[in-house]
Write the structure tokens for this entry.
Amino acid sequence: MKTWIVAGLLLFTFLLQLSITPFLSLGGVKPDLVVLLVTVLGVVFGSSFGLGAGIVSGLVADIFFGRYIGIHALSLGILGYLAGLAEHQVYREQSLVQVTTAMVATAFHQLVFMILLIAVGPRLPLGAAIGRTIIPVALYNGVLGPFVFRAIFRLQQWSQKRTERAS
Amino acid sequence: MIRAKQLLIATTAIILVVSLMSVTTRERGYVTLIEEKLIQALAPLERGLGVIAEWIRARIESVLELGRLRVENALLRDENEHLRALLIEYQEMKAENQRLRELVNFAPTRPESAIAAQVIGRNPDNWFGYVEVNKGSSHGVAPNMAVVSPAGLVGRVTKVTDSTATIMLLLDPESGVGGLVQRSRDTGIVLGGVTARGTLTMNLFSREADVRYGDVIVSSGLGRLFPPGLIIGEVVSVDRNRYSLYVIAEVKPAVNFGRLAEVLILSTAAELLPRSTGSGGTTP
């Protein structure tokens, strides 16, 4: 897939995350669309792609709102890289695999983010952080996972057809 | 060979990012040129999407709430009558207060200059508590200014560009405000924490502090960052652990941060402070 399509997709998702997801919040928790997108990009296109997508989208998030520049970039970069290791290991077309991948990846990312946050800054009550943030976000993202997987597959098909027509 | 190259790129990227994180651990009141340009470039897009999201939410809510509105309307009429009476009483007291102030030559404690701003974005994750507003340094906004809404205290300005400002909400894990129990006048510090939980923690300085369910917590004005008397929230539970140095109260904020659309930025409180902020946490 062309770099400009991915860049546009990341920007669009980031803007959706800033403006739309606060209205989708359930019990104070909103889905994390950027985490979902980076996971799916890693699983579909591999580790290098996942790492790049994670660091770039994370840096944008950090510059825009982050208290510590790099915390989103590092956590999303690690996520994208590790998601890419599963590129040829999972049956990514199956809904159950998509739900599980989205849930596990989100829980992992949130855990890494929490550890980094505690390492550089404030003290957080661990029980509340896991029970009120990590688990609910993972479940929420799990539900949305298949939609993002399918959207990326379609975009990939559209991009391939476009390239074939051009050549 | 390719694997080794990938590993080298990944390691370099991680080292760079960790270095950036360590450099920015201390709170900054300023933004770099890259940050300023990026924020300003994305602000109009973000504002547009925010308007669409708000419109969709309002349509869905208005359909869902029609049945409840009639009952609520009757209750509000009664409440309105009661509030009118209170307003008259308040105006009388305000006039009397003004006369007394003049008499003893007091400076006003409540700042008069306020900048109205619209919320145009929120932080993307579930951990921090930040919102972005459409007013910046060109409108007179500066770091450390206190931010309020009609419901109560919202937080403070942390980052300013020419046309936007970032506000740290009371819910943010790094937020801290000097607070007092309105009924008993016991003081403490009101801290943020896990943003998704939606409540604040108040550590009361005295182990004998008189605080109970339903008590209203207001800003104490200690530390001079926030003006005194602004409503922070209401106590929903109290923990008196005999091994703890503090009495700990859980406080439900008066402001519904999920629905925050407009805020007032108070300029006077920040002018009392030096502009540079060196510490990592929030001064109460």
Observations:
- Chain B touches chain A through 51 residues (CB under 8 Å).
